[in-house]
Write a structure and sequence with these properties.
Elements lengths: L1 H12 L3 H13 L8 H9 L3 H14 L4 H15 L1 H6 L10 H12 L4 H11 L6 H16 L3 H13 L1 H5 L3 H15 L2
Helix pairs in contact: 1-2, 2-3, 3-4, 3-5, 4-5, 5-7, 7-8, 7-9, 8-9, 9-10, 10-12
């Protein structure tokens, strides 16, 4: 099952998102703990399997109540079939994430346009020279936030900042691949 998760990650990173989702599904069916398959949820999101993606992220959130990302990705999936405002109302409550930038991201997604302070902080962080990890994550999630609102051009601008950051170029962080795959898929119209 572990081999299938590695193959699923490799497939996703090489823009074979449907194959990636299927490989993660196979890993889960062979007993890999599905509550640890957050990468599967991302593949499901990009494969358009939003209800399954939301369920995956909600299960992940049960195991890690301090990580805002599962709550945010569940909301992103649910926004596709419930609408943004309803998905926001259903967002999983997360205990305080130890990462300050992710606390701001969570507040932006949770409170939307009423989250002026977090939005300003994230925009400032995303534009910092040097392209740190925080710069990358701020730009990535601003891009996803704009996409959830239907602001395609703004989403592409933030996602370009994320994928071109020094952190994304030099890191083996899976989320750096997400920014790159997101950008490629959206430029194809997928």
């Amino acid at each position: 099952a572990l081999f299938l998760t590695l193959a699923g990650s490799f497939a996703f990173q090489n823009i074979f998102v449907n194959e990636s989702a299927n490989l993660f599904d196979a890993a889960a069916s062979l007993g890999y703990p599905s509550s640890f398959l957050w990468q599967r949820g991302i593949s499901l999101y990009y494969a358009g399997r939003f209800e399954e993606g939301a369920a995956q992220f909600r299960k992940d959130a049960e195991m890690n109540s301090h990580d805002t990302e599962e709550s945010i990705w569940a909301m992103l999936c649910e926004a596709r079939f419930l609408g943004l405002e309803e998905a926001r109302k259903r967002m999983t409550h997360v205990e305080q994430d130890p990462r300050p930038v992710m606390r701001s991201v969570y507040n932006l997604f949770r409170y939307g346009k009423h989250a002026g302070g977090p939005r300003v902080l994230l925009e400032r962080t995303a534009k910092e020279v040097g392209g740190s990890k925080d710069t990358f994550y701020a730009a990535l999630y601003l891009g996803l936030f704009e996409e959830a609102q239907g602001h395609t051009d703004d989403s592409r601008e933030w996602m370009a900042l994320a994928k071109e950051s020094a952190y994304a170029r030099e890191s083996s962080d899976y989320m750096a691949s997400v920014a790159r795959v997101h950008d490629l898929l959206r430029s194809r119209g997928s």
